Amino acid sequence: MMVLGFVLVAVLGYWLARTAATGPEERKPVAEAPVAKPAAIDDPAPKFRRGKRMPSPKGDPAAEMMGAQRGERALVFTDAEALAEFLRRAGDSIRILGRLDKLNALRVGFDDYDDLAYLLDGSEEETMIYPVFDPAPPEGTVQDGAVGLKNGLLEWLGVNGDNSTWGAGVTIAVLDSGIASHGTFGSDIRQIELVEAPADASLLNGHGTAVSSLIIGRDSLTPGVAPGADLISIRIADDTGYSDSFLLAQGIIAAVDAGAQLINISMSSFGDSRLVRSAIDYAGKAGALIIAAAGNNGVDQVTFPAANEGVVAVGGVDALGNHLDFSNSGAEIDLAAPGYDIFAAWTGGQAVSVSGTSFSTPIITGSIAAIMSEGGRRLLTPSRAYDLLVSRLNDAGTEGADPQLGAGMPDIGRVLDRNTPGIYDAAVASTRLVTPSAMTPNGQVEVLVQNRGTETLLNTSVRVVAGGKATTVNITTLPPNGVRTVRVPLTRGPKDGLTNLRVETSVSAGGGVSDRKPANNRRVDTYVASGSQ
What DSSP string runs through 285-328? Predict the structure, then answer.
């Protein structure tokens, strides 16, 4: 009963989050305004539309309570023989709506659940068919002061040179709403349609196009991380952005069978499907790596499949590396990447601004693909490339892994320079306020300092100016990739009339060394006291 209660709360929370972000008839635009658009195109801003739902069949209260597709189940059998025996036993008493022989699975339909229950003999595992969505746009849930990425993706990732061949030889599948033709794509994209695309290309949901451009985009307005990669578009969502867990599992199998080494899933669900878990296992055994979005509900629960074991779960940050309020949190978060005000391609040749963990995810996917191709013809495996990416992450938030940013944010430049000696780079990774305590009644400023170079830093000076007072702290030794937390007590707070706290933080490496990236040596943050305007 406790498990059922938890699921009911999760489904209700998901419905409320989607309702809050959408109107009664349609979702708000993902793009606040087109950034660039051919003069001949006069279409309104792109929108996600809420699809009409079929009336509930009788006789399936469990699915209705779980927020799952009513009158349907997925059955996963122990082997092919058990599946065949079930089909012989079932006859025409239920409807066979789909099958996945690679997983010994069926999708079945019924008018009354008792008709299905009568046929089950324990050789199968039953699971619901859960809704899967392009995450609702996080309109109105971005904190004040969040900084958009715009077209600065490559610079943010530490890419200074030509990246046009990055990802060459790597095959990436994007499971989404399909991909429209666009000038930013340098080559033809293979298309697999598990959901039929509209005859009128202008009606295609642009979500998949935007996601894909962040991987293989080639123009300066909508740059991608790994333009040299081969992309497979697997359309599992209709043009309302709606899919389900059976189609998701089917898409994963199709991606693996088509040779995909990386699988990008910028979609989410609050239903944990046994069938999808089987598909994830299938991908893992084939050596493919799945990267998925954490969701945009602003809750402490990561959506599926990102929350499933064996999937890289991606959260969202702004251009300064601050956690975005709408990005879901949880222990399952592995990494974080920008997810606010990013320039991306759209249908009709447009370039638009998009926000959401949907768009943080392909940044991670593209980064892994770029590192896979580092060795030229001899590609690194997805798991090896992922390990290298994780070995040189930029930390933020709290020191080490945390439920908002996971282990940190990617920096491809650091990965590529990892064996280059003589690099000194002291960075202010992040700042945050620590709540007051008996010892520090006004709270503290916590500063995260990281050595992002390849040489040990000696006598690194950290200067914090907060509430009108300057404090300097010395870090004697900081090894490459090392992180140090510095806390400075505040001498003033809201009780002293301080409502807007400006914090200026800077670091400088000692010993007269030349810092490679002075841009990350300083940051300024303004914190607004709770209840102030």
Answer: HTT-EEEEE--SS-SS-PPBTTTSTTEEEEEEE-TTSPBPTTS-
Of 207, 417, 515, 525, the catalytic one is 207
Q: Residues with Cβ < 8 Å from 91, sequence gap 6 or more? A: none
Give 271's pLDDT tier (boundaries 50, 70, 90).
very high
Nearest to 456 by CA among 513, 410, 401: 513
The reply to whether 176 belongs to the active site is yes
Which pTM does this prediction carry? 0.87
Query: Does the annotation mark 514 as catalytic?
Result: no
Q: What is each CA distance from 386 to 289, 369, 377, 392, in whole angstroms?
A: 9, 9, 18, 10
Final residue belonging to a domain, choices 396, 415, 434: 415
- pLDDT tens digits, residue range 100-144? 999 999 999 999 999 999 999 988 999 999 999 998 778 668 998
Q: Which two tokens stand for residue 469?
A: 């007072």
Dist. CA 355–CA 69, nearest whole Å: 29
Active site residue 358: yes
Residues composing the chain: 533
CATH of the domain at 506: 2.60.40.10
Domain encompassing residue 496: 420-528
Phi, psi of 457 (to 5 degrees): -95, 135
The verdict on residue 406 lying in a domain is yes
Catalytic residue among 212, 245, 278, 358: 358
335 three-state secondary structure: strand
Kindly indicate the confidence band of residue 464, based on its pLDDT and cuts at 50, 70 and 90: very high
Cis peptide bond upstream of 135, omega within 30 = no
Using DSSP bridges, classify how beta strands 230-235 and 190-193 pair: parallel, antiparallel or unpaired. Answer: parallel
Of 60, 134, 176, 425, catalytic: 176
pLDDT, residue 371, reads 97
